[in-house]
C-alpha cells in the first residue's frame, strides 16, 4: 500500500470541492445582487421557503408580471410564425430598456396587434361572404336562365300528365307550378346558397326527406376554393339552388341550411339585375382586396419590428423571472430588512462570488454591505465536474447511469479512452472507421454553424457526441489495422506476408494450409490468413483471449479505483475488508487465467487452458501432464484456489461485526438521547444545513447488505468476465457480415459483364454497408460498450447516487429557451 500512498493526488479526477455558504443581502440591493450571481452562474441557492405555496411568497406579484409578459411574447412569436416572418437574432446595438418600459411597450404592441387582427378578421369575413355571393350569382343565375328557357315545354308536358286529384296540398311541386290559376302562396319559389362539398350529399338527402320529395335540387361546383368560417381553411364548396313551394317548406329548408352551415344569398330572377349585382359585388371585392393587402402589409411591418427585438425581450423576461424566482427562495427578515439565503458553490468560486456581491452593493448605492460567509454542513454537497466541449459527451454518458457522489472517482476520465477503444474492438475495420472519421470531421468542422441551428433529435444526438464518434473512428482504424480488414479485405500495408502456398496454383490453401517461410508480419494479422483453412479458428482464439485480457484489466482498474475512493474518504475498513479480498479473489481465478494466456502466447505451448481451469477446481492436486506451462504450476494453482476460498468469508463477515463494535464503543453508556439546551434551541434553524441526523445502527441490515454485496461480487466476477466475451462475438459478427456483403454482393455482381448489374451490385453493397454496418452495427457496438462500462467496470466502485450541481445561471436559462 506504500506504493499507492506515494502516488500523486487524484484531485483532477474528482468533483470540485464544494462549500455551503450563507448570503445576507439588504433589500435595496437584492435584485442587483441576484442578477450578478446569475451572470456569474456559480451559486446554487437552496429553497428556504419549501413550506410556503407560490402565492405566499414575497415576490409573487413580480413573478406574475413576468409570467404575463412571457404570455404576450409567446403570442407575438405565434403571430410571427403564422405570418412567415423570420425572427432573426437582435443585434447587440439594441437600446437597453428597463422592465417597466418593456411591460408598457408589450401591452401597446399586444393591443395594436389584437385590433389589427380583429379588423382583418372582419374584413376577411366580409370578403369571403362577398366572394361566396359572387359565386352564387354566377352559378345560380345560370340555373334560373335555363329554367326560364325550358318553362313552356315543361308546362305542356305536365298538363298532359296531370293527376286527377285537385287538392292543392296533395299535388306535387311541379304540378302546382303549372296550375292555370296559381296563388301567391302556392307559387314556385327558390333558395340559393353555397355549402361545403363534403356535406353536399347529406344536405340533399335531408332536404328531400324534410320536404317529402316536394323540391327540386340543383347544384354545381363553385369553381374555386373559399375559406371556411369555422376552421379558417380553404375548402371546396358547391353552389346550390332549391326550388320549392309553400311557406312551410321554406322554413324547413332555411333551418336545414343553418344546421349544415350553408350560406344563403338572394339572387334576382331577372338577368339584368343579376348582371348589375354581379358588377357591384366584383367592385366591392376589389376594394376589399386592396384594403386587406394594405392591412396585411401594415401588420407584417409591425410584426417585423417586433421580431427584430423579440429574442432580447424573451431573454430579458426570462432573466427577470429567474431573478424573482430565486429571490422567492430566500428568507425575508422583516425586522432587519434583509434577505437570507443558503447555497452551494465551488470553493474556487468564492472570491468571484464575493467580488460580484461587492459590485452589486456599490452599484445599488446600499448603505449596508452584503454578508457572505461559510457554513458547516452535515449533508452531502452536490456534484460538479468542470467539462469542456471535448469531455462533456463522455461525462453525459456516465451521468446517464447515475450522477457521482460528492468527490467520488469519476469514471468519465477513463471512459475517454476505454469507451471508444472497446467500441473499436467490436467494430474493428479501418474502412468503416474512415467512414466514421469523415462523418465526425464534417460535424466538427461545421460545429459553429450547426451549434447555432435547431437540429432534429438524431442530428442533435450525433452533433453532441461528435468527439465521441471521432475517437471511436480513430480507434476503429487502429483495431482495423490490427485485424487487417478494409471492408473485410486484407491488405499488405506493413510488408509482405510470412506465409506462402505449397504450389504456385494455391489450390490446396483451403485444405492443406500454408507454409511459413519468413519472419512474422510486422503489425497486425497476416493478410494470408484470410481464406485459409485456419482463418476462423485462429481469429476466434485470438479475439476470445484478447477479450478476456481486456476484461480482467478493466475490472482490476475498477477495483483499484475503489481503493482510491476508500483511501480518499478515510475508510480503512473498505480497504482491508473489501478492496483486498476482491483483488485476491478476482486475480486468483481470472487474473491467473490472463497470466496463462500470456504465457501460452509467449511460449507457443499447446496446453488446453479450458482443461487447466476446469481441473483447477475439480482436481487441484492432479497431474497436469502436457497442459503444464511452467514449473510450480500445480502448487501455485492450489495456493490461488485456497486464497480465493478464503477471500469470500473475508469479504462477508469482518466488516459488519467491526462496524457493530465501533458503534457500541462510540455510544457506550448512552441509554438516553441527547438533551437539547436552550442555546441549542436558539441556534437551531429548521431550514439550515446545520441539522445533524443521528441514525440508529441496524446490524441485521448492515449484515444483509454486506452479504448481498459479497455474493454479487463473487457471482459477478464469473459473469462479468464472460460478459467481456461479447467483444469477441461482436467483432466476429461484424467481420463475417462485412465479408458476406463483399463476396455475395460486390464480387458476385462484378462477375457479370453487364454494366447495369455491376452498378446495381455496387449500389446494394453501398446501401448495405451504410445502413447495416455503419448505422445498425455502430449502434449495436455502442450499446455493448456502454453496458461493459456501466455494469462490468463502474459496478466495481461507482455508486452514482449523488445529485448534480445546478447553479442559478442566465446562460442556462438562455440555453433552455433556445
Oligomeric state of the chains in view = single chain
Can you give the mean pLDDT? 84
The fraction of residues in strands falls at: 5-15%
> Tally the helices: what do you get?
26
Give the overall shape, derived from the CA principal axes.
extended
Structure description:
The protein is of the alpha+beta class and 818 residues long. Helix content is 59%, strand content 7%. It has 26 helices and 13 strands. Strands 1, 2, 9, 10 and 11 form a five-stranded antiparallel β-sheet that branches. A four-stranded antiparallel β-sheet has the order 4-7-3-8. A hairpin with a 6-residue loop joins strand 5 and strand 6 (234-235). Helix 18 runs parallel beside helix 23 (699-723).
Entry keywords:
818 residues; alpha+beta; 5-stranded antiparallel sheet; 4-stranded antiparallel sheet; 13 strands; 59% helix; extended
Task: Describe the secondary structure blueprint for this structure.
Layout: H1 2-5, E1 18-26, H2 30-40, E2 44-45, H3 60-83, H4 99-149, H5 151-160, H6 173-177, E3 188-196, H7 200-210, E4 216-221, E5 226-227, E6 234-235, E7 237-245, H8 247-259, E8 263-264, H9 271-327, E9 331-333, E10 338-346, H10 350-363, E11 371-374, H11 392-401, H12 411-427, H13 430-445, H14 447-451, H15 457-464, H16 466-483, E12 499-500, E13 515-516, H17 535-568, H18 572-603, H19 609-618, H20 633-652, H21 654-666, H22 678-683, H23 699-723, H24 726-750, H25 755-793, H26 810-817
Amino acid at each position: 500500500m506504500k506504493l499507492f500512498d506515494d502516488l500523486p493526488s487524484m484531485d483532477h479526477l474528482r468533483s470540485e470541492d464544494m462549500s455551503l455558504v450563507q448570503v445576507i443581502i439588504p433589500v435595496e440591493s437584492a435584485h442587483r445582487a441576484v442578477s450578478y450571481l446569475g451572470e456569474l452562474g456559480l451559486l446554487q441557492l437552496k429553497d428556504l421557503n419549501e413550506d410556503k405555496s407560490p402565492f405566499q411568497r414575497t415576490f409573487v406579484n413580480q413573478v406574475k408580471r413576468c409570467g404575463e409578459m412571457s404570455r404576450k411574447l409567446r403570442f407575438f412569436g405565434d403571430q410571427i410564425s403564422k405570418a412567415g416572418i423570420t425572427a432573426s437574432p437582435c443585434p447587440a446595438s439594441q437600446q437597453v430598456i428597463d422592465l417597466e418600459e418593456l411591460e408598457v411597450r408589450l401591452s401597446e404592441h399586444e393591443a395594436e396587434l389584437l385590433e389589427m387582427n380583429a379588423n382583418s378578421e372582419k374584413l376577411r369575413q366580409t370578403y369571403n361572404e362577398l366572394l361566396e355571393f359572387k359565386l352564387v350569382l354566377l352559378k345560380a343565375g345560370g340555373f334560373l336562365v335555363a329554367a326560364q328557357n325550358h318553362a313552356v315545354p315543361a308546362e305542356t308536358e305536365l298538363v298532359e300528365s296531370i293527376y286527377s286529384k285537385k287538392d292543392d296540398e296533395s299535388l306535387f311541386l311541379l304540378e302546382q307550378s303549372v296550375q292555370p290559376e296559381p296563388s301567391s302562396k302556392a307559387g314556385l319559389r327558390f333558395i340559393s346558397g353555397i355549402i361545403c362539398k363534403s356535406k353536399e350529399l347529406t344536405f340533399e338527402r335531408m332536404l328531400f326527406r324534410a320536404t317529402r320529395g316536394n323540391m327540386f335540387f340543383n347544384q354545381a361546383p363553385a369553381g374555386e376554393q373559399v375559406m371556411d368560417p369555422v376552421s379558417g381553411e380553404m375548402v371546396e364548396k358547391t353552389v346550390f339552388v332549391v326550388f320549392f313551394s309553400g311557406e312551410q317548406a321554406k322554413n324547413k329548408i332555411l333551418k336545414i341550411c343553418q344546421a349544415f352551415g350553408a350560406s344563403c344569398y338572394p339572387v334576382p330572377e331577372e338577368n339584368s339585375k343579376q348582371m348589375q349585382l354581379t358588377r357591384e359585388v366584383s367592385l366591392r371585392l376589389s376594394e376589399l382586396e386592396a384594403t386587406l393587402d394594405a392591412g396585411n402589409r401594415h401588420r407584417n411591418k409591425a410584426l417585423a419590428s417586433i421580431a427584430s427585438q423579440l429574442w432580447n425581450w424573451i431573454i430579458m423576461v426570462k432573466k427577470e423571472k429567474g431573478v424573482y424566482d430565486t429571490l422567492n427562495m430566500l428568507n425575508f427578515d422583516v425586522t432587519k430588512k434583509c434577505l437570507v439565503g443558503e447555497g452551494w458553490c465551488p470553493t474556487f468560486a468564492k472570491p468571484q462570488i464575493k467580488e460580484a456581491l461587492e459590485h452589486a452593493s456599490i452599484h445599488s448605492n446600499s448603505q449596508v454591505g452584503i454578508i457572505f460567509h461559510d457554513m458547516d454542513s452535515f449533508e452531502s454537497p452536490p456534484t460538479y465536474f468542470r467539462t469542456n466541449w471535448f469531455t462533456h459527451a463522455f461525462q453525459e454518458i456516465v451521468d446517464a447511469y447515475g450522477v457521482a457522489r460528492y468527490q467520488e472517482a469519476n469514471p468519465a476520465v477513463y471512459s475517454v479512452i476505454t469507451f471508444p477503444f472497446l467500441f473499436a474492438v467490436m467494430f474493428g475495420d479501418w474502412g468503416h472507421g474512415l467512414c466514421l472519421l469523415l462523418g465526425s470531421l464534417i460535424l466538427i468542422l461545421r460545429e459553429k454553424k450547426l451549434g447555432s441551428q435547431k437540429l432534429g433529435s438524431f442530428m442533435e444526438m450525433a452533433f453532441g457526441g461528435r468527439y465521441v464518434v471521432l475517437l471511436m473512428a480513430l480507434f476503429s482504424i487502429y483495431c482495423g489495422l490490427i485485424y487487417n480488414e478494409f471492408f473485410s479485405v486484407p491488405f499488405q500495408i506493413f510488408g509482405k506476408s510470412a506465409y506462402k502456398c505449397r504450389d504456385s496454383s494455391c489450390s490446396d490453401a483451403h485444405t492443406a494450409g500454408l507454409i511459413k517461410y519468413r519472419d512474422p508480419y510486422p503489425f497486425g494479422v497476416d493478410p494470408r490468413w484470410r481464406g485459409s483453412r485456419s482463418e476462423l479458428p485462429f481469429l476466434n482464439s485470438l479475439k476470445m483471449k484478447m477479450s478476456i485480457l481486456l476484461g480482467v484489466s478493466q475490472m482490476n482498474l475498477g477495483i483499484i479505483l475503489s481503493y482510491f475512493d476508500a483511501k480518499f474518504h478515510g475508510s480503512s475498513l473498505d480497504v482491508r475488508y473489501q478492496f483486498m479480498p476482491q483483488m485476491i479473489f478476482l486475480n486468483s481465478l481470472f487474473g491467473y487465467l490472463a497470466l496463462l494466456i500470456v504465457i501460452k502466447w509467449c511460449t507457443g505451448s499447446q496446453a488446453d487452458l479450458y482443461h487447466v481451469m476446469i481441473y483447477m477446481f475439480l482436481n487441484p492436486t492432479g497431474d497436469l501432464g502436457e497442459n503444464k506451462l511452467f514449473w510450480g504450476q500445480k502448487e501455485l494453482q492450489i495456493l490461488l484456489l485456497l486464497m480465493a476460498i478464503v477471500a469470500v468469508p473475508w469479504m462477508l463477515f469482518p466488516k459488519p461485526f467491526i462496524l457493530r463494535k465501533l458503534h457500541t464503543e462510540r455510544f457506550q453508556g448512552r441509554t438516553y438521547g441527547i438533551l437539547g439546551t436552550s442555546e441549542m434551541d436558539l441556534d437551531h434553524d429548521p431550514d439550515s444545513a446545520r441539522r445533524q441526523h443521528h441514525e440508529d445502527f441496524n446490524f441485521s441490515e448492515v449484515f444483509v447488505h454486506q452479504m448481498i454485496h459479497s455474493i454479487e461480487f463473487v457471482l459477478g466476477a464469473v459473469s462479468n468476465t464472460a460478459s467481456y466475451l461479447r467483444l469477441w462475438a461482436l467483432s466476429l459478427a461484424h467481420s463475417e457480415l462485412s465479408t458476406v456483403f463483399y463476396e455475395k454482393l460486390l464480387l458476385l455482381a462484378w462477375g457479370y459483364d453487364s454494366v447495369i448489374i455491376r452498378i446495381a451490385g455496387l449500389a446494394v453493397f453501398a446501401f448495405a454497408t451504410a445502413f447495416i454496418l455503419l448505422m445498425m452495427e455502430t449502434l449495436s457496438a455502442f450499446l455493448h460498450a456502454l453496458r461493459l462500462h456501466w455494469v462490468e467496470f463502474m459496478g466495481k466502485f461507482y455508486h452514482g447516487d449523488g445529485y448534480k450541481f445546478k447553479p442559478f445561471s442566465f446562460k442556462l436559462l438562455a440555453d433552455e429557451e433556445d
